[in-house]
Design goal:
Length: 740
């Protein structure tokens, strides 16, 4: 099992900022360890390790901490170590130097460097050389503000991967509640406040850096003029009661309220009128982002971190550190102008989205599991292939860049924008005037396509991580390329290649090569359980059954059509070639007013159905139809019909498209036995499986009322919808990334 370690000086840092990421790793099968100087119970943590980290770099306990964490890292063999807080991060990176050479990935988030513009010479001499030196032992260095990012990007040349992630993220859901005026008055009263008081809030730890003395001194002047101005200072006291002593000396106890650590900060913010922040330095302060979320105007000191969040005069004001007169004037200005306060609060709320947990979470997940570049190979026109399009869209949705190489039949002019492909997907077409053809012509055309494909792969070899190859020919090329350039291959078996192509005497050779290709691929995607059983005989690795399901939400509107005055509408939409059963059924029902036959498609029998449609009122031929039009026509039918002639070709391993479409639409289906598409029909009782016999087909039409169409829809949504298949893709990619 893979392991991840989070380190920080204290438990409160992990509990406040990193629980979503512990959960992220836990859900992906990692064993999650946390090392801090504390014994708090931490959610999603499999192993809590107490290490005597100290905040001060001069404490001797840090030497013991280094020895302890070094032993743990060597023993546990972590895949990823993500370290936080300055001293704990220095110790962790020193301890992990040897294990990093063995493949452990070290990620360090700098929550605001102690060296910055305006910092003391002491801080620069102490922290800058250490951080610069240790950057070469850091695989990914994350900064949470632009000032730090721009600086280390210039100075820390030995760290190859420096990221800017704006903060730790604020969970908008915590603030997704409304306090009405009555509740606001009551809560204020409970806190010793009146309805008409002007309430300022600075939720932060009480310490020297947060510089609460600045606002306390200003409050002394404000209270003399405006008795109803109050300041709330919720937060852990790490300053030994110093600020409380000053407030008592200044006789400000009625207007300045110390609450200690509070878990109801969202409520306190929502009953306040103004957010204050007087820090000397910040990384990217959560208290200001939370104030933006609840539409509070903000007055903050002009320091790193604050400057990134506050647009002076737009969503608040920036004041110089310890300029008491300027701070007093800004507070009085907002005290007297409620309209300005409201406008600034609204402006801040517009900026909040950049710093929401949802946004930051996505960015962090991409750092933990970087985007992969997937080459998607399909030797048919992808724009007519609903499964291929869904797979490409799914890869993109799962945070991957996709490069599609496909065949453009007859050099058709294709508007790529109409393919509904995401922005992180690029496509390149192989243009040929002819289709595949048959026999040796087919082989020659495929060889040309594969030569072109290999060249394209080679041109992009540095930008490709995985290759998704559909069909044997592209998969064979992909495995050859992957072996040479150390890539990973997903072989997606759409159908049984040797039976669905006219290969002549080459059939046996290709069949053997197909098995070898399956064994060389890192993963093999199968459309049916029958095909899985067949290839399992050759003991291939990592087989995934991904049904050829339609996109239920986008492609289908589930409606139960009423029967047309007792008539049964039969729908057949597919290739009209080499299948006599459909012709025999047509001959039996022509001129029979009990049945209607709706046919769509192209092929050998196209002219036959055009003629029958003109001759008989109960037969309608729509010709070739695009995918969405097929769905619309299928909705109008009472039963769908899908068949292949097993004497001509063996389709028992093909993707049964019509079965899934019938399930999504809640339509019963009639299929032939021994064709592959019968597998699901029998298993889930979706309709009837018949012999290759037209009379038996007609007999089953009269028994359609025995099929529960509501149950069909429920089965589809629960087990076969594309949402379910997307989860299989997601799991496959996670496992694929695990493989060495």
């Amino acid at each position: 099992m893979k392991k991840v370690l989070f380190t920080a000086t204290v438990d409160s840092h992990i509990l406040a900022f990193h629980i979503p990421y512990l959960k992220y790793f836990k859900e992906r099968g990692y064993e999650v360890h946390v090392a801090t100087n504390g014994n708090a119970k931490i959610p999603y943590c499999d192993k809590k390790i107490i290490i005597p980290f100290e905040r001060s770099p001069f404490k001797f306990k840090n030497i013991k901490a280094l020895k302890n964490i070094k032993k743990i890292i060597k023993l546990e063999n972590y895949n990823i170590i993500h370290t936080h807080t300055p001293v704990a991060s220095v110790i962790t990176r020193l301890a992990a130097k040897k294990e990093r050479k063995k493949g452990t990935r070290i990620i360090y988030t700098a929550h605001g460097f102690h060296f910055y513009k305006g910092a003391s010479i002491r801080n620069w001499l102490l922290f800058y050389p250490v951080e610069k030196y240790l950057s070469k032992y850091t695989d990914t260095l994350i900064t949470i503000n632009e000032e730090d990012y721009n600086f280390v990007k210039r100075k820390f040349k030995k760290c190859n991967d420096i990221k800017y992630v704006p903060g730790v993220g604020v969970d908008e859901q915590k603030f997704n509640f409304i306090i009405n005026n009555k509740e606001k008055i009551k809560l204020r009263k409970d806190l010793g406040l009146n309805e008409n008081d002007f309430v300022m809030i600075f939720p932060a730890e009480l310490n020297q850096n947060k510089n609460q003395i600045f606002i306390i001194n200003v409050m002394e002047k404000l209270v003399r003029k405006y008795e109803n101005i109050h300041l709330l200072l919720p937060g852990k006291d790490s300053y030994g009661g110093y600020y409380q002593k000053i407030v008592k000396e200044k006789n400000l106890q009625k207007n300045i309220h110390f609450f200690g650590y509070r878990e109801d900060i969202p409520k306190l913010l929502k009953i306040s009128d103004l957010s204050i922040a007087t820090s000397k330095r910040e990384g990217l302060p959560v208290n200001i982002i939370e104030a933006m979320c609840v539409k509070l105007p903000i007055i903050a000191t002009n320091c790193r971190g604050h400057r990134e969040l506050i647009k002076d005069g737009i969503n608040g004001f920036l004041v110089d550190i310890n300029d008491e007169k300027e701070l007093e004037n800004k507070i009085v200005y907002l005290y007297k102008n409620s309209d300005i306060r409201k406008k600034m609060g609204e402006n801040g709320a517009l900026e909040f989205k950049k710093y929401s947990l949802l946004k930051i979470y996505d960015e962090m997940c991409n750092i933990y599991d970087p985007k992969k570049n997937i080459a998607f190979l399909r030797c048919t026109p992808i724009y007519n292939d609903s499964r291929a399009l869904k797979e490409v869209q799914t890869y993109s949705k799962l945070n991957n860049n996709v490069f599609v190489l496909g065949w453009n039949r007859n050099c058709e002019s294709i508007d790529i924008n109409k393919l509904s492909l995401p922005n992180n997907c690029k496509i390149s077409f192989y243009n040929r005037k002819a289709s595949y053809g048959s026999g040796y012509k087919n082989i020659i055309n495929l060889l040309k396509f594969n030569i072109w494909t290999y060249k394209k792969l080679k041109e992009n070899k540095t930008r490709i991580d995985y290759i998704h190859a559909c069909d044997f020919d592209t998969a064979y090329i992909a495995t050859k390329f992957a072996k040479k350039y150390n890539k990973k291959v997903i072989y997606d078996i759409y159908d049984y290649y040797v039976d669905s192509h006219n290969l002549g005497p080459l059939k046996n050779i290709v069949e053997r090569l197909d098995i070898k290709t399956i064994n060389k691929a890192d993963f093999t995607i199968i459309c049916t359980e029958q095909r899985k059983k067949q290839i399992n005989k050759s003991n291939p690795k990592n087989i995934v059954v991904i049904h050829n399901s339609p996109n239920y939400q986008k492609d289908y509107e589930i409606t139960n059509q009423k029967k047309n005055k007792g008539k049964i509408r039969i729908g057949y939409f597919g290739i009209l070639q080499d299948d006599r059963l459909l012709i025999e059924v047509t001959e039996l029902i022509k001129n029979n007013n009990k049945y209607e036959l709706h046919v769509g498609g192209f092929g050998k029998y196209q002219e036959y159905f055009e003629l029958m449609s003109k001759k008989y009122n109960n037969i309608t031929f729509f010709g070739p139809l695009p995918y969405k039009s097929v769905i619309e026509k299928e909705k109008e039918c009472d039963v769908l019909f899908a068949t292949y002639n097993p004497k001509i070709t063996n389709h028992m391993f093909s993707a049964p498209n019509k079965v899934y479409e019938s399930m999504a639409l809640g339509k019963p289906i009639i299929v032939c036995e021994n064709t592959g598409i019968d597998e699901l029909v029998n298993k889930e009782k979706l309709g009837y499986v018949i012999k290759y016999d037209a009379k038996e087909f007609i007999n089953k039409l009269d028994k359609l009322d025995n099929i529960d169409i509501n149950r069909i829809q429920q089965i589809f949504k629960k087990s076969y919808s594309w949402d379910v298949m997307e989860n299989k893709f997601k799991d496959m990619l996670i496992r694929l990334g695990d493989r060495k």
